[in-house]
Structures are given as structure tokens and as C-alpha cells.
Amino acid sequence: MATRAIVCGAGGFIGHHVVRRLKAEGCMVRGVDLHLPRFGGTNADEFLLRDLRDPRACRKALEGGFDEVYQFAADMGGAGYVFDDANAAAIMRNSAAINLNVLEACRGCGCGRVFFASSACVYPLRNQRDPARPDCAEDGAYPAEPDSEYGWEKLFAERLYLAHARNDGLGVRIARYHNVFGPEGEWCGGREKAPAAVCRKVAQAPEGGEVEIWGDGMQTRSFLHVDECCEGTLRLMRSDWTGPVNIGSEEMVTLDGLVDMVADIAGKTVRKRHVPGPVGVRGRTSDNRLVRKLLGWSPSRSLREGLEQTYAWVEAQVRAAAEGRPA
Prior knowledge:
Blueprint: E1 4-8, H1 13-24, E2 28-33, E3 46-49, H2 55-61, E4 68-71, H3 79-82, H4 88-108, E5 113-119, H5 149-168, E6 171-177, E7 180-181, H6 194-204, E8 210-214, E9 220-222, E10 224-225, H7 226-237, E11 245-247, E12 252-254, H8 255-266, E13 271-275, H9 289-295, H10 303-322
Parallel strand pairs: 1-2, 1-4, 2-3, 4-5, 5-6, 6-11, 7-10, 8-13
Antiparallel strand pairs: 9-12
């Protein structure tokens, strides 16, 4: 019998790609979200348009029992959204309500394993002040000091899922994602993340034109291609490990370096202009010692390879938008 899976947040970037991967493996998949995927349509067997902040809607969505529950639904975005304090209460309220409802529904619907998508934003600010040597080992999350309300909510949610694992016997799995990117994600409008934003800016810039970068450009990050994210997610879900584990790349790059790489892929020369803006921590990259030990796996795709694919997709969106046609 085929594995029955439900993907909460299936209209979002990662959820949409996980649905596609599960279908490729022969699973029966129900998707749930406020909206269908913005790009590419859905591969789900059925897609329910539901607001998971509503307890009744959430219970109905999870009716029927599932072997695997994937919980990606959240109020989120890139730095421009997460670090805008005007969004802080909504981020915490909406995401907390969704997680409380999903767990309550899982308790009563005979679900098997439950995957929760956490974030590297849970890691303490004090461990990420040196852009050359950030410390994001899983056991370093406490004493807690996330750099945003988004990170605080994710840390609370981790504890919520683990408490239900202990008290209700739920088979919980938790991943701390590090900056997932790739085609079919937000690339404009304020919720896009750095790789998509840089691809858009470079695609829109004329030869020799200017690209704005928030901060001094020396802040470091690692970026994980969405296909690698899907692989790590399914490996973790089907493992015996309950506690949080990093799923991310260890290939660290400065934001200036990211712009240079995308410009080289585009075959353009651009000038960087550093402007004030939300920058988050000075340095962040995945520590993959635990995931290699537990799963015998860690991401292997190079950043450039992922950016080549992503830039081609974003550049097509930019061109289509400029011409007033669908991409």
C-alpha cells in the first residue's frame, strides 16, 4: 500500500517541492494551504484550501489518518519581512496557532510520524557575531538568544513538538533548515530570500549597473538548494532520530561574494552599492557533523550549481514581468 502523506503549507516553496518529491516516490499526497503554489501548479493527489489557524479546519484537513505529516505552514519571509518589527506579532501568533492546531489534530487522527520544519534562526546571536567562525551546532541553541521573533517562535515550536513526542507518543522529527533556495520560490515582493533577491537584482541590472546590498556585504551565510532540502527531509523523516538536526550546506559565502557569483553566472559586470537594511547575524552556516553521523548524508551540491539553475528561472520571471506576460 502506498504511503499516505499530508503536506501542510503545500502552497509554499519547500512544501511544494516536497509534494513533488513524495509523488515521485509513489506516495498518496494531500496538500493543504491557504493558496495553491504560485509557480508551477501542484502535484498533490488532492489539495485543500484551508486556513490551518482555524482549529476546525485543521482537524478536517488531517482527517483520515496519515503515515507521514509534513508541517511547513508558517508566517515567514526573507530578512526584509522577518526583521521588520511591524510583522513580529503576526509571525509569532500565526505560526504558533498553526503548530498548536496541527499537533492537536495529530493526537486525534491516528497519524504516524510528524515532521516539523524549524530554522537556523533558533541559534543564539552570541554564536554568530564572527562572520568567519559562526557556531551552529545543534547543542548550542541554549541558553536561548535568537536574533528575531521568528527564531523565538521556532524554538518554542520545537519544544512543543518534543513535549508531544514525550507525552503523546508522536513520532516527531525536527529539521533546522539553513537558507533554502531554488526555482519556484518568491523572487520579488518583500518575502524573497537573499539568493532570489540577488538573482533578481542582477537580472534587472544593465551591464555595468548597480546592485544594492544591505549592510557591508561581509556578513556570511550558507545556502541549501531545495532538492537537497527535500532529500535531507525525507531521510530524517524515515530515520529514528527525534531531536533537532541541521539540514543545510557548509559552503559559506559573503553577501558580496554571492553577488559576484550570480553576476558571473549572468555574464555581467555589476557595481555593488551598500545601503542600510536588515542584515541579521554576522555569520551563519550549517554544522553537519550530527546529520552525517545520524543519516550518513550531508548536502553535496555546490552553491554555484544551484545558483545557475535558480538564476535561469528568476531571469525568465524578470523578463516575462517586463514584457507583461506569464513566465
